[in-house]
Amino acid sequence: xxxxxxxxxxxxxxxxxxxxxxxxxxxxxxxxxxxxxxxxxxxxxxxxxxxxxxxxxxxxxxxxxxxxxxxxxxxxxxxxxxxxxxxxxxxxxxxxxxxxxxxxxxxxxxxxxxxxxxxxxxxxxxxxxxxxxxxxxxxxxxxxxxxxxxxxxxxxxxxxxxxxxxxxxxxxxxxxxxxxxxxxxxxxxxxxxxxxxxxxxxxxxxxxxxxxxxxxxxxxxxxxxxxxxxxxxxxxxxxxxxxxxxxxxxxxxxxxxxxxxxxxxxxxxxxxxxxxxxxxxxxxxxxxxxxxxxxxxxxxxxxxxxxxxxxxxxxxxxxxxxxxxxxxxxxxxxxxxxxxxxxxxxxxxxxxxxxxxxxxxxxxxxxxxxx
Length: 371
Ligand SMILES: *[C@@H]1O[C@H](CO)[C@@H](O)[C@H](O)[C@H]1NC(C)=O
Ligand SMILES: *[C@@H]1O[C@H](CO)[C@@H](O)[C@H](O)[C@H]1NC(C)=O
Ligand SMILES: *[C@@H]1O[C@H](CO)[C@@H](O)[C@H](O)[C@H]1NC(C)=O
Ligand SMILES: *[C@@H]1O[C@H](CO)[C@@H](O)[C@H](O)[C@H]1NC(C)=O
Ligand SMILES: *[C@@H]1O[C@H](CO)[C@@H](O)[C@H](O)[C@H]1NC(C)=O
Ligand SMILES: *[C@@H]1O[C@H](CO)[C@@H](O)[C@H](O)[C@H]1NC(C)=O
Ligand SMILES: *[C@@H]1O[C@H](CO)[C@@H](O)[C@H](O)[C@H]1NC(C)=O
Known about the structure:
By secondary structure, the chain is of the alpha/beta class. The chain is 37% helix and 7% strand.
């Protein structure tokens, strides 16, 4: 009996929309920050920063063999998803350098969920911020749409066969608050605002006809080497014994993620015709860090590949990846962390597989697909 019900459920849940929502996405639109940026920051920063390190070698060395504006040695999760669906690697919107018929990437490194004005008004902005938060990125999508589809109906149809990746957002909001002097306790108070902003963005995409929206949570911020070198005089009990990551920052990441998952479930209940997918960076990264050798990585997963520092993390803010005299490790394939903040292509590949097939997405992106 139970088996029959399960079978009926599978049949019914596929009827009508399995084909449509299947592997046959006709385009990908991405919003986010440096974990998804494929070249937008370089366009914004080149005229105003003295040096844009992400535009210099060894960024890109493994896959592209030249820098592309991605904060990695190669492909990001977004790139692996595009390849899986046989679509072009999603072109950066601000480069205005390609057709966007099959997708556009609006992600900008440093982008926040909350508006830029929030940070300016609260004296939390800094010279590394651009006015490129989530609502601005949604505005760029609105600007682009008339070139992709014409009538309301045509646009709803066009959008319904697109894959939307909304994030991750949040980690920069919390970082800028901390840099601006907010305590961690104060930062917790802003989590509902951040979640609400992401949730509202998903709702806007659904109104526009989106049928598949992937909403990623944030990475374990306490395992980011750049955060681990900030204060070297913290007591031993501040670190997770198993991983060496910072407990308080990981707690905040998990709190954000569980609130985001709740919001995604609520949106799913209100919009049963849409596939909303919560994608889990956190556990994907944590599981690698717990047993790196199991996934083919070196057993010091908190050590950055690209850098030149005398500490165990190989991170020095004044001698960061791509700065003069700072090179990368022999074999990036064996490293989890690339530059002290962002991950290697090898790590992103593993995460992408977990989003596509599980266990790192609910439901897995490929799950309701007839294959
Ligand atoms: C995939 O989508 C394209 C464009 O909508 C359509 O022409 C094609 O027939 C679809 N292919 C399959 C196998 O559904
Ligand atoms: C634009 O595309 C050309 C040719 O593919 C490439 O050489 C150039 O670097 C691109 N520019 C940007 C800003 O991406
Ligand atoms: C950010 O850009 C938007 C759109 O151009 C503009 O309306 C807004 O005032 C800008 N915000 C700040 C703080 O400059
Ligand atoms: C804004 O922040 C800066 C640096 O954190 C501080 O020096 C300044 O006094 C603050 N200004 C206000 C109006 O709070
Ligand atoms: C570093 O951590 C110690 C112990 O928690 C604390 O007393 C100190 O204020 C911290 N230093 C900075 C610069 O945050
Ligand atoms: C970081 O770089 C600075 C300047 O090159 C150097 O003085 C310092 O010792 C370095 N720190 C570490 C931990 O490597
Ligand atoms: C680190 O920097 C120093 C000084 O610039 C250089 O001599 C050394 O070769 C560098 N090491 C690595 C691993 O890049």
